[in-house]
Amino acid sequence: MIGSITTTRNGRKFQINKRHTRKRMEVSELTAGMYIVELDRPWTESPFLFQGFLLENDDDLLLIQTLCQWVMVDVVEEEWNELDDKGKIAPQKRTRYVEKQEMAQQLSAANRTYQTTKLQIKRLLASAQLGQAFNLKTAQAAVKDCVDRVVNNPNAILWLTRLKHQDEYTAEHSVNVCLLSIALGKQMDLAPFELENLGICGLMHDIGKMKVPTEILNKPGPLDPEEFAEMARHTLYAKQLLMGRSDIYPGAVDVAFSHHERLDGKGYPRGIDSTKLSLFTRIVTVADAYDAMTSDRCYKPGMSSLDAMRILNNNRGTQFDEELVRKFISMIGLYPPGYLLEMSNGEVGIILSADPGYQLKPKVIMILGPDKQPQPERIVNLSMAPEDDRGVLYQPQGVFRSGCFGVHVNDYIDRGLRIKGFEYGIHAD
Fold this sequence. Notes:
Blueprint lengths: L1 E8 L2 E15 L8 E5 L13 E2 L3 H10 L2 E15 L2 E11 L2 H31 L6 H16 L1 H6 L9 H19 L4 H13 L9 H4 L7 H8 L1 H9 L8 H8 L20 H15 L11 H10 L7 H11 L7 E4 L4 E6 L9 E6 L5 E8 L14 E5 L8 H7 L14
Antiparallel strand pairs: 1-2, 2-5, 3-4, 3-5, 5-6, 7-8, 7-11, 8-9, 9-10
Helix pairs in contact: 2-3, 2-5, 3-5, 3-6, 5-6, 5-11, 6-10, 9-10, 11-12
């Protein structure tokens, strides 16, 4: 099946037709990065655990060359047709291998960054809670790495913002707001040094909660007026903790103090309006609200990404900045990485990423069959118009958060995806 896009290169316009196919190759032709889908012998006669795997290194290559004479490789064939006012010119064909290795590497690097940043904010939060002095240098270095990851591959790092552990909410929420803020700042074409400052703002925005009594912070039910008043003071506590420090971006103090303000002046602690809210405060406010709404808390389950984006959209112009909400919704998309996608045939997968120009046709790691039972995991790229076992085109039916269908995305992150090339790719070091 073929998917098509139109692009311009060096002033020339092309229509690119992409066909997802398989190619027989002699083992002597293989190189690292190719995806093997079939052997010249039964899989049971090989040491490979899964029917489909990525050639990652020379050891894998040597093993397959020793075992087989030929294999089938998953490829994407591109047919380039130059266009002019009169129509198509002579096609130029090129073939490239499916780029699975790059994403696996990006996920691995992204997870190391995520875990490092979470460790740093946990240390800062613990120091703040105990009234101890805290060092921001390591956290700033981690944020710089976050910027590099987001700029390099936002899909990979945003995939990990779906990692949710209720007992680590404050730390993970801080990291997620940092990453989402950086990603939104990138959409606003901010410079790298601005993204680093913005990331610090996102990482430190909730540090004041460490001064709120634990019984209020973790109360399983609604807060009474006195308890809410104390919770609202976390913005003041943050200002007190950060103000006067020479080793932190000054804007982080303002963001920590103001991220619960609203454009219409109905927020807290000061009730100031849009004229007094900085760009960084507006960005962090959007990221903070989205991650909080999509996270499980001790008093409520998290909502779906779509429902959270609907609330953001309904409150743009009053609570949230209109332009930022539009850009944020466009960035997250209908098929956010790390969410579950059910197909019209009943199969279920985890959304991995989407190629540029194909936001409505993401790559999905299929994990459950039509009967909602585990099946051999494989990558399906919807932009290639793939078919299921019945020869019917895969069609998305619904997006679901982790926990639906008995699938917890955390489990896949914690143990690593079982597809070779991904199993260690997002496993915590």
